[in-house]
Target: Alanine racemase
Amino acid sequence: MSSADPQVETVVDLDAIAHNVRILREHAGDAAVMVVVKADAYNHGAVQVGRAALAAGAAELGVTTISEALELRAAGITAPILSWLNTSDADYAAAIAADIEIGVSSTAHLRAVERAARASGTTATVTLKLDTGLNRNGVSSADYPHVLSLLQELVAERVVHLRAMFSHLAHADQPQHPVIDVQRDRFVEAIAVAKEYGLQPEVVHLANSAATLTRPDLAFDMVRPGIAVYGLSPIPEISDFGLRPAMTFRARVALVKRVAQGEGVSYGHEWIAPHDTTVALIPAGYADGVPRGLGGRIALRIGDAEYPNIGRVCMDQLVVDLGENRQGVQEGDRAVLFGGAPGDPHAQRWAELMDTIHYEIVCSPRGRVVRGYTGQAGVV
Ligand SMILES: *Cc1c(COP(=O)(O)O)cnc(C)c1O
Model:
């Protein structure tokens, strides 16, 4: 271990990303896989994950903003990239110049894309995002006829090319929920209506991770998984689906010391030593993405053993109890907060304790946390 090792880091296993993409491809059958790398690939690094996913057989990448898409292009990624959440004043000219597929959710969005395409004299590639019941992003049913007639004109003029139509599910994590079928039926109906306007998308897609893994009937031409790519089951109560968590969050023991019976540890002395003991100081706290609400409720793996966190989580540190027998733990050792190796604490456990989902847990490490990679030598 070199002294250059960061105090607190996430390590992303790109072999796990590749493994998870292969599992998703199996479930997708004949459908292509678009890997969702929004929010910097759920905090795993969009460029590195994007490259590893494409090398493992993903066909396309999906992001929310144009700037996320441009970052991937700037890194040399040439695969199709869809950006689906932008305001009407976004830089559509830059998206068109970089051959980014633009998701539109309203007539106003489509007008903005039209202006940019006409100004540059380049056909814009557009994907319609349809609201089939999530009532979030996507073309509303009231706006739909206006979007279709404008699109019909723009396609005829070759200002716009219609690549795809897609929608997003509200209840995919409950595979038998009746709203899933309502959304599927609305989606199919909306595609049929577009055909009445002479509009024929090349591909249509609906399924996120949960639907990809549990509803093969919804695969259409492409699936659009995010969280499963990162190795976290979208429905942990059903199965882990053989996925491998890609992110390990770890820190290096900064100090090992004795604490006498009756002494309190950390702010507020919420933990009082019941007997003489040895504790280890871990330089990771709530500024690094360890929720303060987990204080005294988690355990960290050091070597082959788990040690309980004692007392409050502070801004940049927490303490674990090594017990009577410190089992060789010493300054500089790595302590795993959560990870993907056998015996590692799991992000899902943190999510349960915080009454949230593991998506939010893996998006939490930030600030001084340094991100590194293992696996896929030659890809990064
Ligand atoms: C985030 C997102 C996905 C991926 O969802 P997961 O549950 O992470 O698989 C797919 N499609 C859209 C539109 C999204 O916003």
Remarks:
- The two ends are 22 Å apart (CA to CA).
- The chain is about 30% helix and 25% strand.
- The first strand starts at residue 8 and ends at 13.
